[in-house]
Amino acid sequence: MSYKTIVLAAIAACGVLALFTSAADPSLPEAAVDADLGSAPDAVVGMTNTLKFEPDTVEVTSGETVEWRNTSLFVHTVTADPDEATLEESVRLPDGAEAFDSGTIEPEGVFRHTFTTPGVYRYFCIPHEGVRMYGTVIVGD
Amino acid sequence: MTLYTIRRSWKSVLGTILVACLLPLAPVLAQDGGDRAEQMAQLKEMAPAKGYVNAHKDVEQPFGLLGGPITATIRQQSGGVFVALPDQRELDPRVFGTPQMPRALAGTPGVNGVPLMARAAENGAFTVMSQPSPFGDAFVAMGNGRLQLDAVDATATDAARSDDEVSMMASWEDEGGNTYEVRCCQMLATHGMEFPTFGGVVTNHILHGFTRIGTALMPSEYTYVAFWGMGEVRKNGDVIDRPRLVHGMLTEYVRKQDYKLAFDEEVTPTRRHFHLMVAPFMPVPEEGTFEQNPVTTGFTLPNGMELPFWHVMFENLEIEASRGAE
Hints:
Chain A is an alpha/beta fold. Chain A has helices spanning 3-15, 17-21, and strands at 43-47, 53-54, 57-61, 65-70, 79-80, 100-101, 110-114, 119-124, 134-140.
């Protein structure tokens, strides 16, 4: 292959980057919902190939449950534990709230957490803390 | 310099980056092709580590690593990988200087430095690579990433021979179910061409960026273990390119929000990831330099063209290391 071809390939590749990097993530797969988890969650958050929690902010009331679904190809975590964070900004917990950490969530995996202390929670993904993969849960009274 | 060398260098110029004939902003280049070739040869010869490499490359009995060998094992057993796509790298002024005082110019363009003619003007400043490279912000996610690296850093310096060891297997899958695999190393790079390789394996060292050890297009990054060697590229189990220059490194985290490649001040020292590079270059040992040589990756972009390199990041890692054990 000539270099001209390579250069053209590279330039052309740039033209198709948007196909890769801006494509919408697939909708949340129904298969990710584990029937053993019981009743439906009060809010659902996806974890994406673009290293986002989507939506990045959800609101629930005290006693309600949020479910995270790993809709990506990557391993993620849902971590609101200051001991696991390496950046001070990665975790916020309301006064009196207990820290939590999902542990490793494989692709298509699911994690649920029930919030009982009102306030604002900021959580993060351990392997992707460097890209600031952050989410927020606002728990009302 | 022989005519052969000149022709080869010019071919390499074209092959490295098609910039000299595309850009009007090449003050280091003269008007005729002969001068361009000679100036490109000078750029390569001026790679800052050339003297170091020349002093060490023939050493038959190099010293060992102070304190004894370091053995490292890195694994990824599940989860995806990030595959870099060609993109135009923004140039960090901490590494590449300013339009008024540019630096990091010499060496094979893209492999070591970035000459002015490979820098694009943006608002009157040289702030971005003029052509796509493997080092940018664009990527595609692929699944089922697997990595097994077993490395020993025993020899300290570049040399003619080395006691360093590397065994690496990395694989991942595209959405069509094709498996891509890189294996290394049938042979270690016991010494570098334009920059040091420390016997083939290096531990606990800063690489890239301002160090000019490897491409300056990656940020200056603390590196826990890295290797350079000759390996092979496979697709669906078949060898499709061999030998290939393979480089791997476990570093601090050099991506930022939206997975954009960081500048030096933006890296996250408290997280780590592993980078695998199968470079679109091959060493030219008799010249102590590199020439363009696209990788047969077997991965076809939607436009029908083949990706000419692999630059793959693994981030779900298990890391073990020990010192002093053989």
